[in-house]
Amino acid sequence: MSASERFERAAVLGVAVAEETRRLLRRHLGEGGQGDDGTVLVDVPYPDAAVVTAVLDVAAECFCERGGSVEETRQAALEALLQLAGFDEESQLNRG
Description:
By secondary structure, the protein is mainly α. It contains 3 helices and 2 strands, in the order αββαα. It is 59% helix and 4% strand. The relative contact order is 0.15. It comes from Nonomuraea antimicrobica. This is MftR C-terminal domain-containing protein.
């Protein structure tokens, strides 16, 4: 397998993981709320929470994201993942 084939497979896997993360968040979106600053809160229960946490930890390593705390690092990784998954104003994640 050539380097370009490996890169293409890695890219497809990355987008698939981002889409699955978005699906899990969308699934639990109605259970959260909105913070005082407009931040959307999503409460993801176990076992989905364990999957999302693991994905965010791996994504933080891949994207070299760092924050002042573990939660800030995961938040930065989440933002990068959602950008990769095409999260925007028209995303289904915005729909309740």
